[in-house]
Automatic annotation (TrEMBL):
GO terms for molecular function: ATP binding; ATP hydrolysis activity. InterPro entries: AAA+_ATPase, ABC_transp_ATP-bind, ABC_transporter-like_ATP-bd, ABC_transporter-like_CS, Oligopep_ABC_C, P-loop_NTPase. It comes from Brevibacterium aurantiacum. This is Uncharacterized protein. Keywords: ATP-binding, Nucleotide-binding, Transport. Gene3D superfamilies: P-loop containing nucleotide triphosphate hydrolases. Belongs to the ABC transporter superfamily. GO terms for biological process: peptide transport; transmembrane transport. It comes from the Bacteria. Transmembrane segments: none annotated.
Length: 528
Protein backbone atom coordinates (compact mmCIF):
# COMPACT_ATOMS: atom_id res chain seq x y z
CA UNK A 1 0.00 0.00 0.00
CA UNK A 2 1.51 3.31 -1.11
CA UNK A 3 1.13 6.67 0.61
CA UNK A 4 -2.14 8.30 -0.33
CA UNK A 5 -3.72 5.05 -1.53
CA UNK A 6 -7.23 4.27 -0.31
CA UNK A 7 -7.32 2.36 2.97
CA UNK A 8 -10.25 0.31 1.68
CA UNK A 9 -11.37 -0.30 -1.89
CA UNK A 10 -14.53 -2.29 -2.59
CA UNK A 11 -14.95 -3.02 -6.30
CA UNK A 12 -18.42 -4.20 -7.42
CA UNK A 13 -18.68 -6.70 -4.57
CA UNK A 14 -21.27 -9.48 -4.79
CA UNK A 15 -21.82 -11.93 -1.94
CA UNK A 16 -24.35 -14.54 -0.85
CA UNK A 17 -25.05 -16.94 1.99
CA UNK A 18 -25.14 -20.62 1.10
CA UNK A 19 -26.86 -23.31 3.14
CA UNK A 20 -28.11 -26.73 2.09
CA UNK A 21 -27.55 -25.88 -1.59
CA UNK A 22 -29.70 -22.75 -1.20
CA UNK A 23 -28.14 -19.38 -2.01
CA UNK A 24 -29.39 -16.12 -0.51
CA UNK A 25 -27.93 -12.88 -1.96
CA UNK A 26 -26.68 -10.54 0.77
CA UNK A 27 -24.59 -7.89 -1.05
CA UNK A 28 -25.00 -6.66 -4.61
CA UNK A 29 -22.69 -4.44 -6.68
CA UNK A 30 -21.16 -2.66 -3.67
CA UNK A 31 -18.60 0.00 -4.56
CA UNK A 32 -16.85 2.26 -2.05
CA UNK A 33 -13.48 3.76 -1.11
CA UNK A 34 -12.12 4.88 2.24
CA UNK A 35 -9.30 7.40 2.25
CA UNK A 36 -6.65 7.62 5.01
CA UNK A 37 -7.99 9.37 8.10
CA UNK A 38 -11.61 9.29 6.97
CA UNK A 39 -14.46 8.18 9.22
CA UNK A 40 -17.09 6.30 7.24
CA UNK A 41 -20.52 5.43 8.62
CA UNK A 42 -22.39 2.43 7.20
CA UNK A 43 -26.07 2.79 8.03
CA UNK A 44 -29.18 0.77 7.31
CA UNK A 45 -31.90 -1.18 9.04
CA UNK A 46 -31.41 -4.53 10.73
CA UNK A 47 -30.71 -7.25 8.15
CA UNK A 48 -29.73 -4.79 5.40
CA UNK A 49 -26.27 -6.33 5.00
CA UNK A 50 -24.23 -3.62 6.71
CA UNK A 51 -22.58 -5.98 9.23
CA UNK A 52 -21.78 -8.53 6.52
CA UNK A 53 -20.08 -5.77 4.53
CA UNK A 54 -18.04 -4.73 7.57
CA UNK A 55 -16.96 -8.33 8.21
CA UNK A 56 -15.86 -8.76 4.59
CA UNK A 57 -13.70 -5.64 4.86
CA UNK A 58 -11.65 -7.40 7.52
CA UNK A 59 -11.82 -10.89 6.07
CA UNK A 60 -13.98 -11.93 9.03
CA UNK A 61 -17.03 -13.17 7.14
CA UNK A 62 -18.82 -16.39 8.13
CA UNK A 63 -17.85 -19.62 6.37
CA UNK A 64 -21.14 -19.75 4.48
CA UNK A 65 -20.70 -16.19 3.18
CA UNK A 66 -19.34 -16.58 -0.35
CA UNK A 67 -18.01 -13.80 -2.57
CA UNK A 68 -19.40 -14.37 -6.07
CA UNK A 69 -18.03 -11.27 -7.75
CA UNK A 70 -15.84 -8.23 -7.27
CA UNK A 71 -13.23 -7.78 -4.57
CA UNK A 72 -12.27 -6.05 -1.33
CA UNK A 73 -8.82 -4.56 -0.76
CA UNK A 74 -8.00 -3.48 2.81
CA UNK A 75 -4.68 -1.79 3.58
CA UNK A 76 -3.19 -3.26 0.42
CA UNK A 77 -4.35 -6.82 1.12
CA UNK A 78 -7.17 -8.54 -0.74
CA UNK A 79 -9.52 -9.69 2.01
CA UNK A 80 -12.30 -10.94 -0.27
CA UNK A 81 -12.13 -12.10 -3.89
CA UNK A 82 -13.97 -15.16 -5.17
CA UNK A 83 -15.17 -18.26 -3.31
CA UNK A 84 -11.68 -19.44 -2.32
CA UNK A 85 -8.68 -17.69 -0.76
CA UNK A 86 -5.12 -18.88 -1.33
CA UNK A 87 -3.04 -19.93 1.72
CA UNK A 88 -0.82 -16.87 1.23
CA UNK A 89 -3.87 -14.57 1.20
CA UNK A 90 -5.17 -16.16 4.41
CA UNK A 91 -1.76 -15.63 6.03
CA UNK A 92 -1.72 -11.99 4.93
CA UNK A 93 -5.19 -11.42 6.38
CA UNK A 94 -4.12 -12.87 9.72
CA UNK A 95 -1.13 -10.53 9.78
CA UNK A 96 -3.43 -7.64 8.88
CA UNK A 97 -5.82 -8.39 11.76
CA UNK A 98 -2.95 -8.90 14.18
CA UNK A 99 -1.05 -5.71 13.40
CA UNK A 100 -3.07 -3.12 11.50
CA UNK A 101 -6.79 -3.80 11.89
CA UNK A 102 -9.00 -3.67 15.00
CA UNK A 103 -12.57 -4.93 14.93
CA UNK A 104 -15.04 -3.85 17.62
CA UNK A 105 -18.08 -6.07 17.36
CA UNK A 106 -21.63 -5.46 18.49
CA UNK A 107 -21.52 -8.17 21.17
CA UNK A 108 -18.66 -7.32 23.57
CA UNK A 109 -18.86 -10.57 25.54
CA UNK A 110 -18.11 -12.55 22.37
CA UNK A 111 -14.78 -10.71 22.14
CA UNK A 112 -13.76 -11.49 25.73
CA UNK A 113 -12.61 -14.84 27.13
CA UNK A 114 -15.12 -15.80 29.86
CA UNK A 115 -12.48 -17.88 31.69
CA UNK A 116 -9.87 -15.13 32.01
CA UNK A 117 -9.80 -11.93 34.04
CA UNK A 118 -9.94 -8.68 32.09
CA UNK A 119 -6.46 -7.45 32.98
CA UNK A 120 -4.75 -10.68 31.91
CA UNK A 121 -6.50 -10.97 28.57
CA UNK A 122 -5.89 -7.25 27.91
CA UNK A 123 -2.14 -7.84 28.32
CA UNK A 124 -2.21 -10.97 26.14
CA UNK A 125 -4.18 -9.25 23.38
CA UNK A 126 -1.80 -6.31 23.03
CA UNK A 127 1.22 -8.64 23.18
CA UNK A 128 -0.12 -10.43 20.08
CA UNK A 129 0.36 -7.11 18.27
CA UNK A 130 3.96 -6.90 19.48
CA UNK A 131 3.21 -4.45 22.31
CA UNK A 132 3.67 -4.68 26.07
CA UNK A 133 1.57 -3.01 28.76
CA UNK A 134 1.98 -3.24 32.51
CA UNK A 135 -0.93 -3.00 34.95
CA UNK A 136 -0.54 0.77 35.31
CA UNK A 137 -0.72 1.28 31.55
CA UNK A 138 -3.74 -1.03 31.26
CA UNK A 139 -5.48 0.90 34.04
CA UNK A 140 -4.77 4.16 32.19
CA UNK A 141 -6.21 2.71 28.97
CA UNK A 142 -9.39 1.68 30.81
CA UNK A 143 -9.67 5.05 32.55
CA UNK A 144 -9.48 6.75 29.15
CA UNK A 145 -12.82 5.15 28.19
CA UNK A 146 -14.51 6.34 31.39
CA UNK A 147 -13.99 3.23 33.52
CA UNK A 148 -13.67 4.87 36.91
CA UNK A 149 -12.51 1.79 38.84
CA UNK A 150 -10.05 0.15 36.42
CA UNK A 151 -8.34 -1.96 39.08
CA UNK A 152 -11.66 -3.62 39.98
CA UNK A 153 -12.47 -4.27 36.32
CA UNK A 154 -8.99 -5.70 35.67
CA UNK A 155 -9.49 -8.31 38.40
CA UNK A 156 -13.02 -9.20 37.22
CA UNK A 157 -14.24 -11.83 34.78
CA UNK A 158 -16.39 -10.63 31.83
CA UNK A 159 -19.62 -11.93 33.38
CA UNK A 160 -18.96 -9.86 36.50
CA UNK A 161 -19.22 -6.52 34.69
CA UNK A 162 -22.15 -4.91 32.86
CA UNK A 163 -22.58 -5.03 29.09
CA UNK A 164 -21.73 -1.35 28.81
CA UNK A 165 -18.57 -1.85 30.86
CA UNK A 166 -17.56 -4.81 28.68
CA UNK A 167 -18.01 -2.70 25.55
CA UNK A 168 -15.76 0.01 26.96
CA UNK A 169 -13.10 -2.64 27.70
CA UNK A 170 -13.25 -3.81 24.07
CA UNK A 171 -12.98 -0.23 22.79
CA UNK A 172 -10.01 0.45 25.08
CA UNK A 173 -8.33 -2.70 23.81
CA UNK A 174 -8.83 -1.69 20.18
CA UNK A 175 -7.24 1.71 20.80
CA UNK A 176 -4.35 0.22 22.77
CA UNK A 177 -3.33 -1.97 19.82
CA UNK A 178 -2.55 1.16 17.75
CA UNK A 179 -4.15 -0.06 14.49
CA UNK A 180 -4.29 1.76 11.15
CA UNK A 181 -7.95 0.92 10.62
CA UNK A 182 -10.76 0.36 13.12
CA UNK A 183 -13.98 -1.34 12.03
CA UNK A 184 -16.66 -0.85 14.68
CA UNK A 185 -20.03 -2.62 14.51
CA UNK A 186 -22.51 -0.75 16.75
CA UNK A 187 -19.67 -0.07 19.24
CA UNK A 188 -21.71 2.14 21.57
CA UNK A 189 -25.13 0.47 21.44
CA UNK A 190 -24.74 -0.69 25.05
CA UNK A 191 -23.67 2.71 26.42
CA UNK A 192 -25.77 5.50 27.90
CA UNK A 193 -25.88 8.83 26.06
CA UNK A 194 -23.32 10.58 28.27
CA UNK A 195 -20.77 7.75 28.13
CA UNK A 196 -21.43 7.24 24.41
CA UNK A 197 -20.55 10.87 23.71
CA UNK A 198 -17.40 10.67 25.84
CA UNK A 199 -16.23 7.39 24.26
CA UNK A 200 -16.93 8.53 20.71
CA UNK A 201 -15.15 11.84 21.34
CA UNK A 202 -12.19 9.83 22.60
CA UNK A 203 -12.34 7.43 19.65
CA UNK A 204 -12.51 10.22 17.09
CA UNK A 205 -9.76 12.26 18.77
CA UNK A 206 -7.53 9.17 18.87
CA UNK A 207 -8.22 8.45 15.20
CA UNK A 208 -7.43 12.05 14.26
CA UNK A 209 -4.21 12.14 16.30
CA UNK A 210 -2.91 8.79 15.03
CA UNK A 211 -4.25 9.14 11.45
CA UNK A 212 -6.42 6.05 11.97
CA UNK A 213 -9.24 5.41 9.52
CA UNK A 214 -12.59 4.41 11.01
CA UNK A 215 -15.53 2.44 9.63
CA UNK A 216 -18.54 2.61 11.89
CA UNK A 217 -21.59 0.39 11.35
CA UNK A 218 -24.59 1.91 13.09
CA UNK A 219 -28.34 2.49 13.07
CA UNK A 220 -27.88 5.70 15.10
CA UNK A 221 -28.12 8.35 12.38
CA UNK A 222 -27.66 11.40 14.66
CA UNK A 223 -24.45 9.91 16.06
CA UNK A 224 -23.14 9.01 12.60
CA UNK A 225 -23.83 12.55 11.40
CA UNK A 226 -21.91 13.94 14.39
CA UNK A 227 -18.87 11.65 14.47
CA UNK A 228 -18.38 10.50 10.85
CA UNK A 229 -17.21 12.47 7.84
CA UNK A 230 -18.96 10.35 5.19
CA UNK A 231 -21.74 7.78 5.18
CA UNK A 232 -23.18 5.11 2.91
CA UNK A 233 -26.76 3.88 3.21
CA UNK A 234 -27.33 0.15 2.69
CA UNK A 235 -30.71 -1.31 1.77
CA UNK A 236 -31.15 -5.00 0.96
CA UNK A 237 -27.46 -5.41 0.24
CA UNK A 238 -27.10 -2.39 -2.03
CA UNK A 239 -25.64 1.05 -1.39
CA UNK A 240 -28.53 3.32 -2.32
CA UNK A 241 -26.97 6.65 -1.31
CA UNK A 242 -23.65 8.03 -0.10
CA UNK A 243 -21.91 11.31 0.54
CA UNK A 244 -20.69 13.74 3.22
CA UNK A 245 -22.84 13.32 6.33
CA UNK A 246 -23.97 16.96 6.47
CA UNK A 247 -25.46 16.87 2.99
CA UNK A 248 -26.62 13.26 3.14
CA UNK A 249 -28.77 13.61 6.25
CA UNK A 250 -29.83 17.23 5.72
CA UNK A 251 -31.19 16.61 2.22
CA UNK A 252 -31.48 12.86 1.59
CA UNK A 253 -32.39 11.99 -2.00
CA UNK A 254 -33.29 8.30 -1.90
CA UNK A 255 -36.70 7.38 -0.41
CA UNK A 256 -35.08 4.80 1.88
CA UNK A 257 -32.65 7.36 3.31
CA UNK A 258 -35.53 9.77 3.75
CA UNK A 259 -37.46 7.14 5.72
CA UNK A 260 -34.46 6.45 7.99
CA UNK A 261 -33.99 10.16 8.69
CA UNK A 262 -37.71 10.57 9.40
CA UNK A 263 -37.71 7.57 11.73
CA UNK A 264 -34.78 8.98 13.73
CA UNK A 265 -36.82 12.02 14.72
CA UNK A 266 -38.53 11.05 17.95
CA UNK A 267 -40.50 13.07 20.46
CA UNK A 268 -39.99 13.24 24.19
CA UNK A 269 -43.57 12.46 25.04
CA UNK A 270 -44.81 9.01 25.91
CA UNK A 271 -47.54 7.35 23.93
CA UNK A 272 -50.91 7.24 25.61
CA UNK A 273 -52.47 3.82 26.12
CA UNK A 274 -55.41 2.24 27.91
CA UNK A 275 -54.54 0.52 31.16
CA UNK A 276 -55.09 -3.23 31.22
CA UNK A 277 -58.31 -4.27 32.94
CA UNK A 278 -57.45 -6.92 35.53
CA UNK A 279 -59.47 -8.47 38.30
CA UNK A 280 -57.20 -7.03 40.99
CA UNK A 281 -54.58 -4.34 41.45
CA UNK A 282 -51.77 -6.54 42.76
CA UNK A 283 -48.49 -4.99 41.53
CA UNK A 284 -46.81 -6.85 38.68
CA UNK A 285 -43.50 -6.13 40.47
CA UNK A 286 -42.92 -4.75 43.94
CA UNK A 287 -39.46 -4.10 45.39
CA UNK A 288 -39.35 -2.83 48.96
CA UNK A 289 -36.14 -1.33 50.42
CA UNK A 290 -33.90 -3.68 48.43
CA UNK A 291 -30.15 -3.47 48.95
CA UNK A 292 -27.55 -5.60 47.18
CA UNK A 293 -23.90 -6.15 48.07
CA UNK A 294 -21.48 -8.06 45.84
CA UNK A 295 -17.99 -9.38 46.42
CA UNK A 296 -16.29 -10.85 49.44
CA UNK A 297 -14.25 -9.60 52.35
CA UNK A 298 -12.56 -6.27 51.81
CA UNK A 299 -13.78 -6.20 48.19
CA UNK A 300 -17.42 -6.32 49.24
CA UNK A 301 -19.22 -3.41 47.53
CA UNK A 302 -22.76 -2.09 47.81
CA UNK A 303 -24.35 -2.10 44.36
CA UNK A 304 -27.97 -1.19 45.20
CA UNK A 305 -29.00 1.01 48.11
CA UNK A 306 -32.58 0.96 49.44
CA UNK A 307 -34.36 0.47 46.10
CA UNK A 308 -38.18 0.58 46.12
CA UNK A 309 -40.24 0.11 42.95
CA UNK A 310 -43.94 -0.51 42.36
CA UNK A 311 -45.02 -1.42 38.83
CA UNK A 312 -48.71 -2.01 38.15
CA UNK A 313 -50.11 -4.47 35.57
CA UNK A 314 -50.25 -2.94 32.12
CA UNK A 315 -47.79 -0.19 33.08
CA UNK A 316 -44.16 0.35 32.12
CA UNK A 317 -41.47 1.84 34.33
CA UNK A 318 -38.50 3.19 32.41
CA UNK A 319 -35.24 2.85 34.37
CA UNK A 320 -32.52 5.16 33.07
CA UNK A 321 -29.00 5.89 34.21
CA UNK A 322 -25.38 5.74 33.17
CA UNK A 323 -23.46 2.57 32.43
CA UNK A 324 -22.52 0.89 35.71
CA UNK A 325 -25.18 2.77 37.68
CA UNK A 326 -26.94 -0.42 38.79
CA UNK A 327 -29.64 -0.80 36.12
CA UNK A 328 -28.74 -4.36 35.14
CA UNK A 329 -28.29 -5.36 38.79
CA UNK A 330 -31.90 -4.30 39.42
CA UNK A 331 -32.94 -6.48 36.47
CA UNK A 332 -31.03 -9.49 37.80
CA UNK A 333 -32.44 -8.96 41.28
CA UNK A 334 -36.00 -8.71 39.96
CA UNK A 335 -35.45 -11.95 38.03
CA UNK A 336 -34.16 -13.73 41.12
CA UNK A 337 -30.63 -14.11 39.76
CA UNK A 338 -29.17 -12.05 42.61
CA UNK A 339 -30.44 -12.32 46.17
CA UNK A 340 -30.81 -8.99 48.02
CA UNK A 341 -29.15 -8.57 51.40
CA UNK A 342 -32.17 -6.66 52.68
CA UNK A 343 -35.66 -5.95 51.39
CA UNK A 344 -38.51 -7.87 49.80
CA UNK A 345 -39.47 -8.60 46.18
CA UNK A 346 -42.74 -9.97 44.82
CA UNK A 347 -43.99 -10.70 41.30
CA UNK A 348 -47.77 -10.65 40.78
CA UNK A 349 -48.15 -11.12 44.53
CA UNK A 350 -45.78 -14.10 44.77
CA UNK A 351 -42.79 -13.58 47.06
CA UNK A 352 -39.34 -14.25 45.59
CA UNK A 353 -38.51 -16.39 48.60
CA UNK A 354 -41.46 -18.67 47.91
CA UNK A 355 -41.82 -21.53 45.46
CA UNK A 356 -39.91 -21.24 42.20
CA UNK A 357 -42.79 -23.08 40.55
CA UNK A 358 -45.16 -20.26 41.51
CA UNK A 359 -42.89 -17.72 39.81
CA UNK A 360 -42.13 -19.84 36.73
CA UNK A 361 -43.60 -18.24 33.64
CA UNK A 362 -44.94 -15.21 35.53
CA UNK A 363 -41.75 -13.26 34.87
CA UNK A 364 -39.74 -13.22 31.65
CA UNK A 365 -36.80 -11.20 30.38
CA UNK A 366 -35.41 -9.74 27.19
CA UNK A 367 -31.77 -9.05 27.96
CA UNK A 368 -29.13 -6.77 26.53
CA UNK A 369 -27.12 -9.36 24.61
CA UNK A 370 -29.35 -11.40 22.28
CA UNK A 371 -26.52 -13.57 20.94
CA UNK A 372 -25.88 -15.01 24.40
CA UNK A 373 -29.59 -15.71 24.92
CA UNK A 374 -29.88 -18.38 22.23
CA UNK A 375 -28.43 -21.88 21.98
CA UNK A 376 -26.14 -21.68 18.92
CA UNK A 377 -26.99 -25.30 18.03
CA UNK A 378 -30.75 -24.84 18.20
CA UNK A 379 -32.95 -23.37 15.49
CA UNK A 380 -34.69 -20.10 16.30
CA UNK A 381 -38.18 -21.61 16.23
CA UNK A 382 -37.24 -24.29 18.75
CA UNK A 383 -35.63 -21.68 21.01
CA UNK A 384 -38.71 -19.48 20.93
CA UNK A 385 -40.87 -22.48 21.87
CA UNK A 386 -38.55 -23.49 24.74
CA UNK A 387 -40.52 -21.65 27.49
CA UNK A 388 -43.62 -23.65 26.53
CA UNK A 389 -41.74 -26.90 27.06
CA UNK A 390 -40.05 -25.62 30.23
CA UNK A 391 -43.47 -24.89 31.77
CA UNK A 392 -44.71 -28.29 30.59
CA UNK A 393 -47.73 -26.77 28.93
CA UNK A 394 -49.78 -29.48 27.31
CA UNK A 395 -49.52 -28.36 23.73
CA UNK A 396 -48.98 -30.52 20.69
CA UNK A 397 -46.06 -29.94 18.36
CA UNK A 398 -48.47 -28.39 15.85
CA UNK A 399 -49.85 -26.00 18.48
CA UNK A 400 -46.34 -24.94 19.54
CA UNK A 401 -45.32 -24.32 15.93
CA UNK A 402 -48.48 -22.27 15.36
CA UNK A 403 -47.73 -20.18 18.46
CA UNK A 404 -44.14 -19.63 17.29
CA UNK A 405 -45.35 -18.46 13.87
CA UNK A 406 -47.83 -16.14 15.57
CA UNK A 407 -45.11 -14.51 17.68
CA UNK A 408 -42.69 -14.24 14.75
CA UNK A 409 -45.34 -12.35 12.84
CA UNK A 410 -46.04 -10.06 15.76
CA UNK A 411 -42.38 -9.03 16.04
CA UNK A 412 -42.11 -8.57 12.27
CA UNK A 413 -39.78 -11.49 11.51
CA UNK A 414 -39.92 -13.62 8.38
CA UNK A 415 -41.49 -16.99 9.27
CA UNK A 416 -38.65 -18.75 7.45
CA UNK A 417 -36.26 -17.59 10.17
CA UNK A 418 -37.75 -20.26 12.45
CA UNK A 419 -35.51 -22.78 10.69
CA UNK A 420 -32.37 -20.65 10.89
CA UNK A 421 -29.64 -20.80 13.52
CA UNK A 422 -28.74 -17.76 15.67
CA UNK A 423 -25.53 -16.93 13.77
CA UNK A 424 -27.58 -16.54 10.59
CA UNK A 425 -29.60 -13.65 12.04
CA UNK A 426 -28.53 -10.07 12.51
CA UNK A 427 -28.36 -8.57 15.99
CA UNK A 428 -31.66 -6.78 15.45
CA UNK A 429 -33.38 -9.94 14.22
CA UNK A 430 -32.07 -11.88 17.22
CA UNK A 431 -33.41 -9.29 19.63
CA UNK A 432 -36.85 -9.44 18.08
CA UNK A 433 -36.75 -13.24 18.35
CA UNK A 434 -35.84 -12.82 22.04
CA UNK A 435 -38.91 -10.63 22.54
CA UNK A 436 -41.07 -13.28 20.87
CA UNK A 437 -39.69 -15.95 23.19
CA UNK A 438 -40.33 -13.86 26.29
CA UNK A 439 -43.96 -13.22 25.39
CA UNK A 440 -44.86 -16.72 24.21
CA UNK A 441 -45.99 -17.83 27.71
CA UNK A 442 -48.14 -14.74 28.41
CA UNK A 443 -46.09 -13.52 31.39
CA UNK A 444 -47.40 -11.14 34.05
CA UNK A 445 -44.16 -9.17 34.23
CA UNK A 446 -41.35 -8.65 31.71
CA UNK A 447 -37.90 -7.13 32.20
CA UNK A 448 -36.59 -5.43 29.05
CA UNK A 449 -32.87 -4.79 29.63
CA UNK A 450 -31.63 -2.65 26.70
CA UNK A 451 -34.04 -4.65 24.53
CA UNK A 452 -33.99 -2.23 21.58
CA UNK A 453 -30.41 -0.95 21.77
CA UNK A 454 -29.32 -3.19 18.87
CA UNK A 455 -32.16 -2.13 16.56
CA UNK A 456 -32.12 0.58 13.92
CA UNK A 457 -34.49 3.46 14.49
CA UNK A 458 -37.23 2.26 12.14
CA UNK A 459 -37.33 -1.25 13.60
CA UNK A 460 -36.94 0.11 17.13
CA UNK A 461 -40.05 2.24 16.78
CA UNK A 462 -41.94 -0.75 15.37
CA UNK A 463 -40.86 -2.98 18.26
CA UNK A 464 -41.71 -0.35 20.89
CA UNK A 465 -45.14 0.06 19.36
CA UNK A 466 -45.50 -3.72 19.31
CA UNK A 467 -44.58 -4.01 23.00
CA UNK A 468 -47.21 -1.39 23.81
CA UNK A 469 -49.86 -3.19 21.78
CA UNK A 470 -49.07 -6.55 23.35
CA UNK A 471 -49.01 -4.98 26.79
CA UNK A 472 -52.49 -3.56 26.24
CA UNK A 473 -53.77 -6.94 25.07
CA UNK A 474 -51.97 -9.13 27.63
CA UNK A 475 -51.80 -6.78 30.62
CA UNK A 476 -48.22 -7.51 31.69
CA UNK A 477 -46.22 -4.99 33.68
CA UNK A 478 -42.79 -4.05 32.39
CA UNK A 479 -39.46 -2.74 33.61
CA UNK A 480 -37.81 -1.07 30.63
CA UNK A 481 -34.11 -0.52 31.30
CA UNK A 482 -32.37 1.69 28.78
CA UNK A 483 -29.83 4.40 28.13
CA UNK A 484 -31.87 5.51 25.10
CA UNK A 485 -33.90 8.37 26.55
CA UNK A 486 -36.01 8.67 23.40
CA UNK A 487 -37.04 5.03 23.73
CA UNK A 488 -37.88 5.49 27.40
CA UNK A 489 -39.96 8.56 26.57
CA UNK A 490 -41.82 6.64 23.90
CA UNK A 491 -42.76 3.57 25.93
CA UNK A 492 -42.64 4.35 29.67
CA UNK A 493 -45.55 5.55 31.81
CA UNK A 494 -43.17 6.50 34.62
CA UNK A 495 -39.43 7.05 34.86
CA UNK A 496 -36.96 6.20 37.60
CA UNK A 497 -33.43 7.63 37.40
CA UNK A 498 -30.65 5.62 39.03
CA UNK A 499 -27.16 6.83 39.91
CA UNK A 500 -24.54 4.93 41.94
CA UNK A 501 -27.09 2.34 43.01
CA UNK A 502 -29.71 4.81 44.26
CA UNK A 503 -32.98 6.05 42.74
CA UNK A 504 -32.38 9.81 42.67
CA UNK A 505 -35.60 10.85 40.93
CA UNK A 506 -38.84 9.26 39.78
CA UNK A 507 -42.24 10.28 38.48
CA UNK A 508 -44.51 10.42 35.42
CA UNK A 509 -42.54 10.38 32.17
CA UNK A 510 -43.71 13.75 30.89
CA UNK A 511 -42.86 15.48 34.18
CA UNK A 512 -39.38 13.94 34.40
CA UNK A 513 -38.48 14.95 30.84
CA UNK A 514 -40.14 18.38 31.00
CA UNK A 515 -39.06 19.51 34.48
CA UNK A 516 -36.23 17.37 35.88
CA UNK A 517 -35.13 18.29 39.39
CA UNK A 518 -32.05 16.25 40.21
CA UNK A 519 -28.71 17.44 38.72
CA UNK A 520 -27.95 13.92 37.46
CA UNK A 521 -31.26 13.74 35.57
CA UNK A 522 -30.60 17.16 34.08
CA UNK A 523 -27.14 16.06 32.90
CA UNK A 524 -28.59 12.91 31.28
CA UNK A 525 -31.16 14.94 29.37
CA UNK A 526 -28.58 17.51 28.28
CA UNK A 527 -26.26 14.83 26.82
CA UNK A 528 -29.02 12.80 25.14
Amino acid sequence: MTAGSPVVTVDHLEAEFRKNNVSTPVLSDVVLDLEPGQRLGIVGESGSGKTTLALLLGGLQAENCVVTGGSVDTLGITTASGPQQSPSAVSQMRSLRRNDLAYIEQNPTAALDPTMKIGKQFALAVSASGLTMDNTEIAQALTAVNILVPETVMTSYPHEISGGMAQRVVIALALARQPRLIIADEPTAALDAETRAEVLDLLVDHCNDQKISLIWVSHDLPAVSQWCTRAVVVQRGRIVEEGPVDALFAKPQHPYTQSLVAASVTTATSQSQAAAQLANETPALKMESVSVWLGRGTRRTQILDDISLDIQPGKTLGLIGGSGSGKTTIAKTALGLIAPVTGRISVAGYDHKGSRRQLAGRIQAVLQNPAAAFNPRQMIGASIAEPLRARRQRRSQTEREHRVRELLGLVDLDLRLATRFPHELSGGQLQRAAIARALIVNPEFVVFDEAVSALDVAVRNTVLTLIRQLQTEMGFGALFITHELAAAAQIADEIAVISCGQIVESGPTQEIFATPNHPYTISLLETA
